[in-house]
Design brief:
Radius of gyration: 19 Å
Structural class: alpha+beta
Strand order of the largest sheet: 1-2-5
Pfam families: Bac_DNA_binding
Protein name: DNA-binding protein HU
Organism: Pseudoroseomonas cervicalis ATCC 49957
CATH superfamily: IHF-like DNA-binding proteins
Number of strands: 5
Distance between the termini: 25 Å
GO biological process, one term: chromosome condensation
Family: Belongs to the bacterial histone-like protein family.
Largest sheet: 3 strands, antiparallel
Shape: elongated
Length: 98
């Protein structure tokens, strides 16, 4: 895996934030933790999170439904669930070349 294809890690984000702001890495790490906690708390409370120029995160709910076990064909009940959806902003789409 090359450097360009390696996933960006949390430590990479801390390093980039420290370099961009001249903050020590420990402070940049604390800021990143605080931001991620705030985003997680907002989503946990059912609120949408909008980051201008980047995108928005929202909680999506799936209703309970019936499915089939592919191995046996048995009908199974799939519980309702929640997940996070991300919608990129126009600026981010432009950076991606879309």
């Amino acid at each position: 895996m090359t450097e360009e294809t390696r996933p960006l890690s949390r430590q990479d984000l801390v390093d980039a934030a420290a370099a961009a702001t001249s903050l020590p890495k420990t402070q940049a790490d604390a800021v990143l933790k605080a931001v991620l906690a705030a985003v997680g708390d907002a989503l946990g409370a059912g609120r949408e999170v909008r980051l201008a120029g980047f995108g928005s995160f929202a909680v999506s709910e799936r209703a309970a439904r019936q499915g089939r076990n592919p191995a046996t064909g048995e009908v199974v009940q799939i519980a309702a669930s929640k997940s996070v959806k991300f919608k990129p902003a126009k600026d981010l789409k432009t950076r991606l070349g879309e």
